[in-house]
Amino acid sequence: MFKAEKHVLTSQDGTKITAYDHGGNGDTILFIHYLGGIAQAWGPVIKYFTDKYKVLTYDLRGHGQSGQPEKGYTFEDAASDLVSVINHFKRDKVHLVGSSYGCMVGLYFTAMRRERVLSLVNIDGAMINDTGKDGLYDESLEEHLAKFEGQFDPDYESIDAFKQYYRENWQPWNEARANYVNHFKPRVKENGKVGAITTEETMKAIISEIYYVDFLTWYEKTECPVLFLPAEKESHFEKSIRFIEKASKGLPYSKTVLIPNTTHLMMYDHEKELAEAIQEFHAQLPVSQKSSM
């Protein structure tokens, strides 16, 4: 379930950002969802944290109930939004937890706003570059985007058709996935069809921002502890492990935890193990990394 107090705030450039306060007390933990997702993605894991943490989530710009401007999808824009969220809730420092693209946003923020972050947890994200040596792709950005032509923002005949597609194709279908799809509010397009909230233009803008980034340069600027949670069943797993070894060398403290049989969005299948790994990591941090006010 996803029960939270909704907050609507404005980022520095005027973009509306929708954030959620899930209650709780203690250190503040803030979850950042993946590309094309919404804050409700964290529904399966939140229940494991509210007894020990102040829990916050938010919809990234271009996602969910946040604004979707035509421009403004750099990592600096995303970091500015995150500052606005943290300040809105009057937090000084937070523990960040990201999934996929959310890891990249969290890493950039951690590197560039070091004084605001207690620790960083990366769930199968920001642990391999798209391009460069040992990267995922050996093609230009234009060639890369062309491969996904027509897939960024497909048409569905109706909201029911949208949900049916996910029921049939997002496997293994379970209660966590069903709850997410039920919260997901598609948009009605000008052609009368139904699509995801995040448009093709926004998806391309964010993917273009990511494509040539060398995440190692951001880890070199990171001063807080980092937990890496690579997904064992993904094809890029071995490359991720090699990347993590490089990234860890310059970090003051890092830990890598492998949860068996995990896929990219592991919060839908391994929520309990995921929560336990994060809390164990936090329990091992020095006292100086446990003060969010």
Q: Can you count the beta strands?
A: 10
Summed up, the helix count is: 10
**Protein structure class:** alpha/beta
CATH classification, class level: Alpha Beta
CATH architecture: 3-Layer(aba) Sandwich
Distance between the amino and carboxyl termini: 28 Å
Mean pLDDT: 95
Helix content: 25-40%
Q: Tell me the count of domains.
A: 1
Shape by Cα distribution: globular
| Cα-based radius of gyration, to the nearest Å | 18 Å
- Low-confidence parts: none
GO molecular function, one term: hydrolase activity
Domain AB hydrolase-1: 28-156
Protein name: AB hydrolase-1 domain-containing protein
Keywords: Hydrolase
What's this, in brief?
GO terms for molecular function: hydrolase activity. Pfam families: Abhydrolase_1 (PF00561). Helices cover about 35% and strands about 15% of the residues.
Task: Throw out a few tags for this protein.
single chain, about 290 residues, alpha/beta, Rossmann fold, two-stranded antiparallel ribbon, 10 helices
Question: Any overview of this molecule?
Answer:
The chain is α/β, with parallel strands linked by helices. The chain has one domain (5-136, 213-289): Alpha/Beta hydrolase fold, catalytic domain (Rossmann fold). Helices cover 34% and strands 16% of the residues. It contains ten helices and ten strands. The protein has helices at 43-46, 75-88, 101-112, 141-147, 159-169, 175-183, 200-211, 215-219, 237-248, 271-283, and strands at residues 5-10, 16-21, 27-32, 53-58, 94-99, 117-123, 187-188, 194-195, 226-229, 254-256. The strands form two sheets. The chain has an eight-stranded mixed beta sheet, sandwiched between helices. A two-stranded antiparallel ribbon has the order 7-8. Strand 7 (187-188) and strand 8 (194-195) form a beta hairpin. It is globular. The model has no long low-confidence stretch (mean pLDDT 95). Keywords: Hydrolase. Residues 28-156 form the AB hydrolase-1 domain.
